[in-house]
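Comment thread on ticket #2218

A.B. wrote:
> Attaching the input chain for the structure job we discussed in standup.
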Amino acid sequence: MRLPAARGPVTGELFERLAGPPGDLEPPLVTPRPCAAALEDGDLQLALFACYELHYRGFDDVDDRWEWQPSLLGFRRELERCLEGALADAVPRPAPPPPQHVRRALKELVAHDEQQGPGLAAYLQREAGLDRFREFVVHRSIYHLKEADPHTWGIPRLHGGPKAALVEVQIDEYGGGSAGRMHAELFSTTMTALGLDASYGAYLGRVPGITLAISNVMSLFGLHRRLRGALAGHLAALEMTSSLPNRRYATALRRLGGDAEATRFYDEHVQADAVHEQIAAHDLCTGLATQEPSLTGDILYGAACALAVERLWAEHVLGRWRQGATSLEDETVAA
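C.D. wrote:
> Ran it. Output below, let me know if you need it in another format.
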């Protein structure tokens, strides 16, 4: 993957520096804009995504030594402050329940969100044509081609039962050690079947800020030990809201002519995530809250953030489609 086109002053200056040898960012990079609209700010979200990507597979045209360059980490912290501020504005912090009631509180959060949701999965199942489904897959490729990686950062930060629970979930995400069964590889197969470019990060320049925010929130929670509770809650929310939508995605793709190989990614999640939601909600989150009661509020907040950002993304996609427009960005306009 190479750096995409810049989308504004922040990415413009950042990408220009990253193209050169690692060094101090003098003069300092452009200060990010006010945080109120940060979740949908394509310039800010792409800049933060690029900073985080240095901790994953990186960019072919960026020196790997940038990963731990102190001045770049300082700049990333400013971007993170904007993201955390935007989350605080957009997501009310749930009242922390007693540790033994965490699972029930998670279920209540999910049930409330399902009542509020815009119904993207149902639209794809019943109405969407092949072009719309392919567009949906392009959005999802930003996370699914590195599926599970952000939550794996939490493993060395946990111990005992919660650590074992997270490992149990991640083993399935990584195909039990079989490369062909890794969920990221299954998604790559789906992309290929739909005639899309399955290369890692191929569509980074086409997705809007809110799509990037979905991945950035995971990386934020995963890369900061202080947010390990939020990371656990985030994973639980993903698993608890996965089975039914993926059943609908599989049905949609079959309706549109997809074969067993094309739908395998979604079929796998229908089965696996029905189990994962029990492990994540009880063994991971309730277990962590019991070990560290001070993290109970963070666990619920992480789940609420996952649900809220996903809902904002779905509203963006459906809103554009109802206007007869694409939900993706034009790379030439962004550049």
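A.B. wrote:
> Thanks. Noting for the ticket: The two ends are 17 Å apart (CA to CA).
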